[in-house]
Specification:
This protein is of the alpha/beta class and 367 residues long. The protein has helices at residues 22-29, 35-41, 49-58, 65-68, 81-84, 150-162, 181-192, 206-209, 216-223, 243-254, 273-285, 309-320, 356-366, and strands spanning 113-117, 120-123, 168-171, 199-204, 228-234, 258-264, 289-294, 330-333, 342-343. It has a single domain, classed as Aldolase class I (TIM Barrel, Alpha-Beta Barrel), CATH 3.20.20.70. The N and C termini lie far apart (43 Å). The protein binds iron/sulfur cluster.
């Protein structure tokens, strides 16, 4: 049984000053949530509005101004815009695409927990994101069913405490960093009391979309316990990395946080070897290791983003000709029901110099 006597507001080991959290919270609360306003700010043609409203009705628009500032004015093909502007095609019912592409529902038998793999699980502190990405594989996820009250938090900590095979907890969501630091500090302190846990991983897009989220208060709970901190950010395009993002990354790495990036391969956004190589280069320059490039998860409403697997392998091969090997992320597919992601192309270079070993690896991964 885990002691839950500490309440969120009573946390005293993290030196949290709530006044300094207002800046990022203000940015978050002032996000654009109306498609018409988004088009107007960016000087875009109102012809796009009917499709944008239709998509918005299925999955709401949410874009903070800090992200809008990185989108080129008047360019309807901007790769950052494509990630946030709803389109009418989102309403198409495409065969082979589902509302739960990774089969997560059976793994969500305990409220607030997704237990998909051995040794680690996902804990969901909140439902909100800093941005609503049109391609999100959890765009239909029943977040409302995963809100935890005090007793349910106790039950979640008990679940983790009773499973000694776990060594790592992943805070994911939604975006865990959309929650306030008092709440997160309390959660992490409770996790740190569980002896078999070693690592705390945070999956977040907030340092990319609202880099002001990386505050001293956040770093305090992230690095203030015995748990080894890992932050996996989600960045898809080099234009997403501006000065404030670099500052946020440097801030985290200077405090000893291990930084990794996962991207999703998206048609019209980053399906070019030059873009992928530039993304890796910029990430590494601010201390972030390119980790995964995910093949698109086939979620209903986002079929227009899919890049097929053969094309993806070719892109990775061409990318490896443009940059050092350690800058090439693992091209991975998340298959429903497997114990880990399937690595599709760690070694593939191109048709001309593909090795026998590589050919074998690719054919095995296809089986
Ligand atoms: S931030 Fe992550 S979880 Fe939230 S909508 Fe975007 S991809 Fe989905």
């Amino acid at each position: 049984m885990i002691n839950l006597s500490a309440q969120p507001v009573q946390t005293n080991s993290t030196n949290i000053r709530q006044k300094n959290t207002q800046t990022w919270q203000k940015i978050l609360s002032q996000s654009v949530t109306n498609p018409e306003e988004l088009l107007k700010i960016l000087g875009l043609n109102t012809d796009l509005l009917p499709g944008a409203i239709a998509g918005h009705q299925q999955f709401q628009v949410r874009v903070p101004h800090t992200y809008i500032a990185r989108i080129e004015h008047g360019n309807s093909e901007d790769p950052l815009l494509r990630q946030v502007l709803p389109l009418g095609v989102e309403l198409d019912n495409v065969a082979g695409f589902s509302t739960d592409p990774l089969g997560e529902q059976p793994k969500n038998s305990h409220r607030g927990i997704l237990h998909k793999y051995n040794s680690r699980l996902i804990l969901m502190p909140g439902q909100l994101c800093g941005i609503n990405c049109r391609f999100c594989f959890r765009r239909h996820f029943p977040y409302e069913d995963n809100k935890l009250n005090k007793e349910e938090w106790q039950s979640a900590f008990d679940y983790i405490g009773n499973d000694t095979s776990l060594s790592e907890i992943i805070l994911s969501g939604g975006d865990p960093l959309s929650q306030n630091d008092l709440r997160l500090a309390w959660i992490v302190e409770e996790l740190a009391k569980i002896p078999h846990l070693k690592r705390l991983r945070v999956h977040t897009r907030m340092p990319i979309v609202i880099p002001q989220r990386v505050t001293d208060e956040m770093l305090s709970w992230l690095t203030g316990t015995r748990l080894q901190p890992i932050v996996v950010v989600h960045c898809n395009h080099p234009n997403e990395i501006d000065e404030d993002v670099v500052k946020a990354m440097n801030n985290m790495s200077s405090k000893g946080v291990q930084l990794l990036n996962q991207s999703t391969l998206l048609k019209g956004v980053n399906d070019s070897p030059e873009v992928l190589a530039s993304l890796s280069d910029k990430l590494f320059s601010c201390g972030v290791m390119p980790y995964y490039l995910h093949l698109f998860d086939r979620v209903q409403g986002a079929a227009h983003f899919e890049v097929d697997e053969e094309q993806a392998r070719k892109l990775i091969g061409e990318m490896s000709n443009l940059c050092s090997g350690y800058l090439v992320p693992k091209l991975a597919r998340d298959n429903s029901g497997t114990q880990s992601k399937t690595i599709v192309a760690p070694l593939y270079r191109n048709k001309e110099n593909q090795t026998e070993e590589t050919t074998k690896l690719i054919s095995t991964s296809n089986s």
